[in-house]
Write the structure tokens for this entry.
Amino acid sequence: MTDSRATVDSLKHEAARFSDERDWSRFHNPKDLAIGIASEAGELLEIFRFKSEEEATALMSGSRGEDVRDELADVVYFVLRFADVTGIDISEALERKLEKNAVRYPAEKVRGDNRKYEEY
């Protein structure tokens, strides 16, 4: 399945199916899923620790690229399970958050500036 063919809903169902086949759903409460998100994000981050921007970019085409993809997939898995278990519609949540951030970070004011909204 590719991004252009998948839906968030189908990915949620696939992650739930995988979990159910292993009887893991009983471990998938909001707290533990949030811990899973943070833990897997930390494992993704660790791959890039102490790398220059050039080295980090080169990782993607090198032997560590598969590790990066695996860790990102782990993060996505936990995000999908968290959303499914808690009843969060990811698309709706993202749309609302982008609307909030459009107010906090108006494009004409912040273009090319990466400071946090309260700093400008």
The first helix runs from residue 8 to 21.
